[in-house]
Amino acid sequence: MRRWTALLLPLVLALIPTTVRAAPAATVEVSAVYGTDNGTLNKELVLRASQGGYLTLQNLHVLADHADELADLGLREIRVDHVFDDSFYGVVKGVDKFDFSKLDAVLKPLVDHGIRPWISLSYMPGAFATNGLFSPPKDYAAWGRAVDAMVSHYAAMPGSNYRGWNWEVWNEPDNKGGFWTGTTAQYNQLYAASAQAVRHGDPTAKVGGPGVATPTVGLLGGWLDYIAANPGIPCDFVSWHSYGPNDFNSTQDIRGEISRRGIPAKQLYITEWNSTFAMNNGPGTWPDTHQTASYALQRMYDALGETGLNGVHFFSGLEGWRPSADFNGDLGLLTVDGRRKAVGNAFAMFDALGNTKLSTTISGNSGTATYGLVTADSAAKKTTVLLWNNTLNTTTFHPSVSGLPYASTNFAVTQYAVNAQNSYSDNAAGQKNLRPSAHEPLRASNRTVVASASNWSSTVTLAPNAVALIELTPSSEAPGSKPVPGVQSTIDFARGVTVAPSSSYTNAGQGWGPSALVDGRRYSYTGANEGNPTMGWTSAEHPTATASESVRVDLGATRTFDAVTLWPRSDQFGDGRGFPADFTIVGSNDGTTWSPALVTKTGYGAGAPVLGPQTFAAAGSFRYLRVSATKLGLPIPEAAGNAYRFQLAELEVTAPITLS
């Protein structure tokens, strides 16, 4: 993960343009022939992400809980760094003393959802550091044993999904003043200790590096010289990062550097890429919108054509630079609270393509900025056309496919779009209380059934930075336009409303306050890279669990809902604590007369931490809703000793809704 400062601002600004300002183009013709295979579409190459080491990821639940959403985007692999940071996973408890339980809590859900972890071996635990997190170790042998222990731990897991991972030695060691304070020689020594440990811990694993920020000869060249001079040191791949351009031409340069030194060919990986490495570009800037979607598809297509390139990892999977903001111009496929961004739908579109590329002729295009892919899934007799317009001009496409297997059957033509209507625009239009919002998922914009035919053609007009996916599938329906289903969503009536607690500890700098109970942040974040963290609401302190506290929300009008969800505090320090043991949930329309209890709980949690969202069936029509605790749950260790409090990260009052 790249850090940047005001000193880098001119460079950041130089990287902002991600689209081509083409002259008004003629219509782009995209013609393909079904059955004329042009090779296999290598989805594995591009459906990868690099997870940024945001401070919000110190919450062990947030990445794990979004593994299903990341898998839905088609991701095959996620690169995870900070694995040795004390403040993230606390793996190293001392020399040759290890605890992998926290790291397990994050990596196992990824594997369970079919996502392979790629591990960046960073950064230096306090037990080994000579001078802080980014320093060389005091004892390279002890560091190597820690790496061996980690690799061996996962290789010993049941099943085959924990072996054969890629292990990358460090992250951006060329980022002076950033992630490595040692010399190139010290990095080479770190690499040797790490690589030998990886090979010992899992002989099927791949190891490499150096994951440099800039693919120039500097540290990278010094490391390659070391690899050339020490062929006995394991090295399976070379990795680097690429921010800004519309291509991956740096691959050619790296291949040349390897060849010039007489090093046998290595696998090549770009383990971070995006249009910029700045993570606070501001709400509604290009990373929040469809501009990054069209840019990403152009670059993903370019990656497919780079000889020797084995994989590219989009930065980032889940974002979190400024956790208090719904959108901040951050770089993720998902926002900090799990909203799917337009670029996430671009990944989902790529994943929806068939595995076989069809022979395709494209003319009238502006390079690969106005371009497309046509694929087939012969088993399902599905044909898929993906078109993107990564320019600042409206472009008309004429896609056509001949030789289709629909001569004796009708077929459906379903079109999906990524354009100016997306999760950011929904949020700006007031849909922040809808999950998902109207244009957040990848949804069909229109669907038509066509009479049996062997040929198909259409006209698709794409506005600047728009993307279209068109699927042709066999259908038994009669020809004609067909309705498309609405988006099944949930409305949260409590988002952003007035909160009235019986007592409260408020500290914006620490993320505590009544308004944080309904800010849309479902997790507790003790830190933030920028701005304030957000923890939730907490009552005043009590010496024992025998205390009464309550919190009331004013929904603004009478609302009909069917569920109340209470999200417990979830940071590492107080995970699952502060959740009430005995409590009721009641409703009111005047704030004075309260209904019989909608929910009554006694001894909730049975003395154990309460983890994850707690959803209660609580149907009713009320303006006010109150949660009243008569006995508090597990105490929180604080400076003065154990403190009993009523604490929640978020409160939601919800009902299902269908969005057209």
UniProtKB/TrEMBL annotation:
Residues 486-651 form the F5/8 type C domain. Residues 1-22 form the signal peptide. Keywords: Glycosidase, Hydrolase, Signal. It holds the Pfam family Glyco_hydro_39. Belongs to the glycosyl hydrolase 39 family. PANTHER family: ALPHA-L-IDURONIDASE, BETA-XYLOSIDASE-LIKE PROTEIN-RELATED. This is F5/8 type C domain-containing protein.
